[in-house]
């Protein structure tokens, strides 16, 4: 993040008994609005797009006011150049895929064109669908078309409102790489609305954590999802996880494994298609991490990271979370309080973090979002 | 067909076509205002539009005479400024048919409008389409089946219009004597039963042809908008 924020949002609105009061800024890249349903994520997204008019506040994009109650500014939706990918795709049923894609393109003729039709079609693999009608498309295909359509409108900001929520798990995995590809191919600021940690971790640089119409916390993704004091908002007990950034060191094709450097240690993960030196982001679930006083070389566990205990947090029930500093990165381990006592764990004690390689599947390992 | 029968048939088709085409833009505008508009007096406007459906047609014809007669406020203006005379003319017959079938047309179009997902219009505006552009490129095409069925219903109702027509523009051969009026005239004249019978057969054939045509059209439109 450098200089003035690209996106500056402050939204206040009363909707019946629901009271929305949200403010945040973004320096570009992908910002996730994360929170449970009913937190006000979509309302904020709609206020940025102009679909919903706040009672008070402002929306500024690259220095220009899109909305400012105090100054009487309210740029209509069609003039905001804010692209929107809806949860339900909202493709025009009477138009072919090609005409859907060109809908925004022909209406953005007077703005700088950074996304070309053929490039977007190839990036999202839409070529075989161009002559078809939305009716015959699968859910995943629809979202790809909606993504391309929004992008071809040459938006200055792209809002994605739970674009994967209506898809089944398989199709979600199929769309995610397109989303990251799109994010990396075009340096367009994105606002990504989601309540799924995996998506946010893969896509976003920053998180705005929302609950009941308020901002709970904002910050870099790995920070927010690693903070113990935010666990109540970032996931239930078994979702608790660490977000760590690692670098590809080497591939071992005979075993279909990739070695990555994490802090001062090396960890094996299932093969990742990326050259050595590539930065990766890993989500390590706390319940998949075990602790030991010595390195258990005679076990099957592939990930053995030496570190030092930084924090021990007691949880409800029989559980405790232990944060281990492994050479600069933080890894959380979910253990029982019984284990804490049995191993006599204490802050500052040297300890080994044990992570099964099979626990790091490809949904949890992905390219690092650009800063 | 005899020249008289041919004349009544062609006049009926002309009157119905004119009535349908001329009222279509107004029906779309009013259906849109009633379905989406937020203005004071909307309930009253809704009631006025539906009046012809509940009033005796003769009463509608009477009001048309008051308003559109050469001494009526609108009729006088049309006559003196534009040189259009409605009373006792084919155009007047079309007006009577249009007013009588207007509520049916508005209802059908309004149903179609209610079925258009406002989310699609939102999507269009986020893609840079102004409100009128959104209406023309998204709303209107998606309403097409309803517009078509509204037009078909109005056309069919116009073909059968009798009371308002005979009250407003009378029963003038070659000018305002449509099929229903011709059948009525035949039944009123001695020995006209045979003539009336032939005209009734023509009305039957016309109705069946209309039904088949509208079915075929509806199928084509549904295909065209991807339903």
Quick summary:
The complex is a heterodimer of chains A (371) and B (227). With 371 residues, chain A is α+β, with helices and mostly antiparallel strands. Chain A contains 9 helices and 21 strands.
Description of the structure:
The complex is a heterodimer of chains A (371) and B (227). Chain A has 9 helices and 21 strands. Chain A is α+β, with helices and mostly antiparallel strands and 371 residues long. The longest helix of chain A has 17 residues, at 169-185. The N and C termini of chain A lie close together (7 Å). The model of chain A has no long low-confidence stretch (mean pLDDT 88). Chain B has 227 residues and is mostly helical. Chain B is 80% helix and 0% strand. Chain B contains 10 helices and no strands. Chain B has helices at residues 3-36, 42-54, 57-68, 73-82, 90-114, 118-126, 131-160, 163-169, 179-188, 193-224. Chain B is globular. Chain B starts with a helix and ends with a helix.
- What share of residues are in beta strands of chain B? under 5%
Mean pLDDT of chain A: 88
CATH class of the largest domain in chain A, please? Alpha Beta
Q: Examine the secondary-structure arrangement and name the CATH architecture of the largest domain in chain A.
A: 3-Layer(aba) Sandwich
Pair with the most extensive interface?
A-B, 28 and 23 residues
Helix content of chain A: 10-25%
CATH topology of the largest domain in chain A: Rossmann fold
Identify the overall geometry of chain B: globular
Report how far the terminal alpha carbons of chain A are from each other.
7 Å
What structural class do the secondary elements of chain B suggest? mainly alpha
């Amino acid at each position: 993040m450098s200089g003035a924020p690209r996106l500056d949002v402050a939204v206040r609105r009363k909707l019946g008994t629901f009271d929305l009061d949200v403010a945040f800024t973004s320096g570009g890249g992908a910002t996730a609005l994360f929170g449970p349903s009913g937190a006000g994520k979509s309302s904020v997204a709609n206020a940025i797009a102009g679909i919903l008019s706040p009672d008070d506040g402002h929306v500024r994009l690259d220095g220009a006011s899109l909305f400012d109650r105090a100054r009487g500014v309210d740029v209509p939706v069609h003039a905001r150049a804010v692209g929107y990918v809806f949860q339900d795709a909202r493709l025009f049923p009477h138009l072919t895929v090609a005409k859907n894609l060109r809908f925004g393109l022909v209406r953005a003729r007077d703005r700088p064109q950074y996304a070309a039709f053929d490039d977007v079609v190839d990036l999202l693999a839409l070529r075989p669908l161009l002559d078809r009608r939305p009716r015959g498309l699968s859910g995943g295909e629809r979202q790809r078309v909606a993504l391309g359509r929004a992008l071809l409108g040459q938006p200055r900001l792209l809002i994605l409102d739970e674009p994967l929520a209506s898809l089944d798990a398989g199709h979600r995995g199929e769309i995610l790489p397109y989303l990251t590809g799109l994010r990396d191919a075009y340096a367009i600021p994105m606002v990504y609305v989601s309540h799924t940690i995996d998506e946010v971790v893969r896509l976003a640089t920053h998180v705005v954590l929302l609950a009941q119409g308020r901002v709970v916390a904002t910050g870099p993704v790995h920070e927010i999802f690693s903070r113990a004091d935010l666990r109540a908002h970032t996931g239930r007990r078994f979702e608790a996880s660490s977000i760590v950034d690692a670098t590809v060191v080497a591939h071992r094709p005979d075993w279909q494994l990739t070695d990555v450097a994490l802090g001062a240690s090396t960890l094996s993960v299932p093969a990742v298609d990326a050259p050595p030196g590539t930065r990766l982001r890993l989500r390590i679930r706390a319940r998949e991490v075990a602790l030991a006083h010595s390195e258990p070389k005679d076990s099957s566990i592939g990930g053995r990271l030496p570190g030092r205990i930084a924090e021990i947090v007691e949880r409800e029930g029989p559980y405790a979370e232990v944060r281990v500093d492994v050479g600069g990165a933080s890894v959380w381990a979910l253990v029982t309080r019984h284990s804490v006592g049995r191993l006599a764990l204490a802050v500052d004690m040297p300890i080994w973090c044990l992570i099964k390689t099979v626990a790091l599947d490809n949904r949890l390992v992905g390219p690092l979002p650009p800063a | 067909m005899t020249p008289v029968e041919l004349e009544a048939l062609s006049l009926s088709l002309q009157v119905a076509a004119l009535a349908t085409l001329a009222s279509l833009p107004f029906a779309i505008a009013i259906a849109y205002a009633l379905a989406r508009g937020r203005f004071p007096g909307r309930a009253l406007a809704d009631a006025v539009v539906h009046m012809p459906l509940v009033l005796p047609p003769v009463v509608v014809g009477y009001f048309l005479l008051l308003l559109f007669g050469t001494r009526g406020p609108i009729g006088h203006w049309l006559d003196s400024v534009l040189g259009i005379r409605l009373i006792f003319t084919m155009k007047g017959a079309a007006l009577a048919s249009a007013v009588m079938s207007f509520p049916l047309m508005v209802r059908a179009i309004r149903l179609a409008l209610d079925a258009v997902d406002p989310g699609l219009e939102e999507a269009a505006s986020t893609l840079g389409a102004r409100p009128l552009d959104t209406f023309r490129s998204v709303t209107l095409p998606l309403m097409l089946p309803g517009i078509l069925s509204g037009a078909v219903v109005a056309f069919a109702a116009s073909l059968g219009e009798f009371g308002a027509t005979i009250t407003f523009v009378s029963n003038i051969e070659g000018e305002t004597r449509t099929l229903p009026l011709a059948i009525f005239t035949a039944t009123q004249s001695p020995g006209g039963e045979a003539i009336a019978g032939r005209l009734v057969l023509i009305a039957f054939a016309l109705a069946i042809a209309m039904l088949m045509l509208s079915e075929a059209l509806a199928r084509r439109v549904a295909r065209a908008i991807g339903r």
